[in-house]
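[step 3/7] fold_predict: job queued, chain A
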Amino acid sequence: MSARLVVLISGNGSNLQAILDACASGELDASVVSVISNKADAYGLTRAHNAGVEALHFAKLENESRSDYDARLAVCVSAYLPDYVVLAGWMRILSSSFLLSFPSRVVNLHPALPKTFPGVHAIERAYAAYQRGEIKHTGVMVHLVPDEGVDNGPVLAAQIVPIFADDTLESLEARIHGAEHGLLVKTLQEIVTKNNRLS
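[step 4/7] structure written:
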């Protein structure tokens, strides 16, 4: 049975596009039932609209706490009956008010290897570390989000991305994003296939 995905984004949505394309081609046995952004101007909402997928800006209310926002978001997402919630460039840390509604079903993509460069600006920080001679490569990972820890949940998949001597930050970013697109789709398909076998 085709899996139902809700994708949360905050920006450009290139990883969302990879998911949409994989669903359309049949590479990923799933459908994106809603795309939700905390930012009204996120280009990913346009990508969703262009693919015929419901696109929703979910705004934070004035003086609303993080916990209350997340609880409201959980109600919104639950209405779509998702099998998985995919964080594809979602730039807010989700609290237990959201995560407890979707145990072992929130999947995050992070542009670094496990236990390296958690949080924002991971690519820039990896590039700077390479320039200082501290690392020889970086990578990407897909992991579950069980709690409020930042980019440290159970790892589903990881892929090394080399850093070359003539790399600019832009060329490294492009190579990491390419790796992200492939790894995210492949990992989601593995999760969906495994779930179908168990159900």
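[step 5/7] annotate
The helical segments are 14-25, 43-50, 66-78, 96-99, 122-131, 169-198.
The chain has six helices and seven strands.
exit 0
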